[in-house]
Amino acid sequence: MRIYAYDQASDKGADSQFAWQKREQLLLAPYATFSKESRGRRFPEELHPYRSPFQRDRDRILHSAAFRRLSGKMQVFTGDMGDYHRTRLTHTNEVASLARTVGRYLRLNEDLTEALALLHDIGHPPFGHCGEDALDECLADFGGFSHNRFALDLVEQIEQRWTAAPGLNLTEEVISGQIGRTDKSRDSLRLPPILEAQVVDAADSIAYDAHDVDDALQVGLISFQQLYKLAIVRRAMEVSDGSVRRPNNERQLLVHTLIDLQIDDFVRHCQSQLADVQELDSQSIRDIGLYLNMSAELESEKRELESFLFENVYRHPRLVEIRLRAATRLKQLFHLLVAYPERLPIRFQEIAARQGVEKAIGQYLAGMTDRFCNETYVSLVELGRSHGEDWA
Ligand code: MG
């Protein structure tokens, strides 16, 4: 077996810093979140010689089972509606890409930004928000269900690594960033999230607004004629006026320009927001209550696009029908497993013993991909009924 020896001393200069610490010192703005100031992990670990703590978090998330399962979870459209549209995984990758672009440009911690982006949707149950609503209803007497809270259950308890510690043992900064997503209320008592988390939030919204337009046009739920009534779309068409047009590339051009103009507006506006507080550190930026945002004009045009998508895409009868079927399946699976908890996999029976059967069932169902949920429904519910089971 070949052994790769690593000489830590060669990576540390006279000032005893790792290369990644020096790199951050050189490249990041004072208001960024520095790895060397990390509040650490719940189960303390040695620092890695050539990966910063946030790089390791990113890698742990990327290598987790829950992250891989995002490939089988719907974003807006289900697998049987074609193979063009986004899945929860490709959406996550788009968010990470946009967030890293913005984070790098604003001289924030790009590794932390990427870790937060890869984590942001990891707690989504099968069938998107309708799956979430169904589980929330089933668990109403047991604390309810939220995909943002489930993301924390996954990375703090459910995920299994090669180490003895439960979950992924992520840094406090990544965990706090996710906790910030569980309650978005901006009351005056709450500090804003760190800037890296705010950038991920903005990238999430920019990505889904643009790609939902793309996917809905491609699937045929909306038309260009409808879109042209929206100010942000007219603005995008003006911006892209000088672009080379090919037949049938109107959709791609629109989506590209929608992303481009929103990112451009966001980074420029952020720069002006940060101009007078350049020298503050990450915590002081939170203390003064700074929320990064787009210009008011684009923000309001974006809201118009979002209400359009809400009315014409998310509530489209084709999607409502799929959602209803999915919600019914999840609820029936939930009630069947309450009646027959011994049908849970052993791991979740153990969770049931510690946290209660309903919570364990919620976690089991929430971890499923859309396909696995459908298959489990057929094997448990439909087969059970054909054998005369009556549990509902
Ligand atoms: Mg998202």
Please state the CA-atom Rg, rounded to the nearest Å.
23 Å
Major sheet size, sense and barrel closure: none
> What structural category arises from helix and sheet content?
mainly alpha
Distance between the termini: 58 Å
Shape descriptor reads: globular
Please trace the helix and strand order, writing H or E for each element: HHHHHHHHHHHHHHHHHHH
Low-confidence stretches: 1-9
Fraction in helix: 55-70%
The hetero molecules present are:
magnesium ion
Give a count of the beta strands, DSSP E runs of length 2 or more: 0
The average pLDDT is: 90
* Strand fraction: under 5%
The helix count comes to 19
Structural notes for this entry:
The chain is mainly α. The protein contains 19 helices and no strands. The radius of gyration is 23 Å and the shape is globular. Bound molecules: magnesium ion.
What characteristics describe this protein?
0% strand, globular, 392 residues, mainly alpha, single chain
Give the helices and strands, then pairings.
Layout: H1 8-11, H2 19-27, H3 53-62, H4 65-69, H5 88-105, H6 110-119, H7 128-138, H8 147-158, H9 172-182, H10 195-219, H11 224-227, H12 231-239, H13 250-274, H14 282-287, H15 296-314, H16 317-339, H17 346-355, H18 357-366, H19 370-386
The structure holds magnesium ion (MG).
Residues 91, 95, 120-121, 204 line the site of magnesium ion.
